[in-house]
Specification:
Keywords: Membrane, Transmembrane, Transmembrane helix. This is GGDEF domain-containing protein. One of its GO terms (molecular function) is diguanylate cyclase activity. The protein is an alpha+beta fold and 409 residues long. The protein has two domains: 240 residues, no CATH class; 146 residues, Reverse transcriptase/Diguanylate cyclase domain (Alpha-Beta Plaits), CATH 3.30.70.270. It contains 16 helices and five strands. Strand 2 and strand 3 form a beta hairpin. The chain is elongated, with a radius of gyration of 25 Å. 42% of the residues are buried.
Length: 409
């Protein structure tokens, strides 16, 4: 998994056809775009000196942040991962000839591979190559923007143009990563793929530091002294984003945990109530989950939880909030939905879970449905009402959806 050798054995070839086509197309376009911009500015002695200095800073960055970068890559999950070495890549876009700016990307990703991902086995070769390709393509887009002011690459002036170039670079890279995630996991919701915007603020902040690095690149002493400060800022920011995600996420299912779900659902209910809308809650409980653990082991129970979590996430809208409430209970918040639609969603989830194939055999769920304002005006009231309806469903035989009292005429 961690070797670049034998490309025919890469996991890419077992991916869905649309993923393979997309990844190969992005790589080809990145190479073509890189070749097209290579001759926009000549390579001179000053450019080579800057390349050497920025390259040294990049290598120092990788060496001093290897542990943090590996944790960020692992924690990214189904969301995109962006390396904080964009500090030096973006500085290179501003002050280096395009061909050397592209070489900076190759240096950074090559060094990261051999010092972080290859040694720890955390990233597959095709994913590494795709990430490098998206950054190369994003860099070329930024280079095109910078040609709006020919003086920018040499002087780091024209801040508005540089900021625009940085925004274009970020958007192209982020969009390409999100697209491949959605193609890889057709059942994934857009909201889940683009969530965690704190990581993207970190990327934008890294490019801001890249702009500062570009401004002082001709003063090597200042730049080298600034490297530890840059690493301290990025390292702390990365850890804060990582800790926040861990604090909000259930470790087994990667759904929101009970605390985070309640907080987000409360905000969503407040917004919905202010505009006079309705707000549905589904409380979902796996039937006979204790029996699954007792007969098949807790490992099989964990598999069931993960598979059911994916089915629930795939069966609701992208704006709905799915969480795990602990044990075998799940909960969904559905803003702006009618009673009939709410029960239809609950029934769809029940059917989908009943059709799942898991090692533990047949699984089913009991679902309780409540709706604001009919069944309560707070998240706590709706949870209590939906929970009571869910227990009614269990008492009526399980594997069914039950509406809260007063929900339907």
């Amino acid at each position: 998994m961690g070797s670049l050798g034998r490309p025919t054995g890469w996991a890419l070839w077992s991916a869905p056809r649309q993923v393979v086509v997309w990844v190969l197309a992005v790589e080809v376009v990145a190479l073509v775009a890189t070749a097209a911009t290579a001759s926009l500015a000549p390579v001179d002695a000053a450019g080579l000196a800057r390349f050497g200095l920025l390259g040294a800073c990049l290598v120092a960055h990788v060496e001093l942040s290897r542990t943090i970068e590996r944790k960020r890559e692992v924690a990214a999950g189904s969301g995109p991962y962006l390396s904080t070495t964009s500090v030096w890549n973006f500085a290179g876009v501003i002050v280096l000839p395009p061909v050397l700016a592209s070489a900076m990307v190759v240096l950074g990703y090559g060094y990261m591979w051999f010092r972080v991902w290859h040694r720890r086995g955390t990233m597959r070769p095709h994913r590494w190559l795709y990430s490098a390709g998206t950054v190369l393509l994003a860099n070329q887009a930024a280079v095109v923007v910078l040609t709006l002011d020919p003086g920018v690459p040499a002087t780091a002036g024209a801040v508005a143009v540089v900021v625009l170039a940085g925004g274009v670079r970020w958007f192209v890279n982020y969009a390409l990563i999100c697209v491949v995630k959605l193609l890889s996991e057709p059942s994934a919701r857009v909201r889940n793929v683009v969530s965690g915007f704190g990581e993207q603020l970190l990327e934008l902040g890294a490019m801001g530091l890249g702009l500062l690095a570009a401004c002082v690149v001709d003063t090597p002493a200042v730049l080298l002294v600034a490297v530890p400060a840059v690493l301290a800022v990025l390292g702390r920011s990365a850890q804060v984003a990582q800790f926040r995600k861990a604090a909000e996420t259930d470790g087994k299912t990667q759904l929101l945990n009970a605390t985070a779900w309640t907080e987000f659902a409360t905000h969503a209910l407040d917004r919905t109530s202010r505009r006079g809308g309705t707000f549905g809650v589904l409380m979902i409980d796996l039937d006979h989950f204790k029996r699954i653990n007792d007969e098949h082991g807790h490992g099989a129970g964990d598999v069931v939880l993960k598979v059911v979590a994916k089915a629930i996430t795939a069966g609701v809208r992208s704006g709905d909030l799915v969480g795990r409430f602990g044990g075998e209970e799940f909960v969904v918040a559905l803003p702006d939905i009618s009673a009939v639609e709410l029960l239809a969603v609950g029934e769809r989830l029940r059917r989908w879970v009943a059709a799942l194939e898991v090692p533990a055999g047949h699984v089913s769920i009991s679902v309780g449905a409540a709706l604001a304002p009919d069944n309560g005006l707070s998240v706590q009231d709706l949870l209590a009402t939906a929970d009571a309806a869910m227990y009614t469903a269990k008492h009526e035989g399980r594997n069914r959806v039950e509406a809260a009292a007063g929900l339907l005429p």
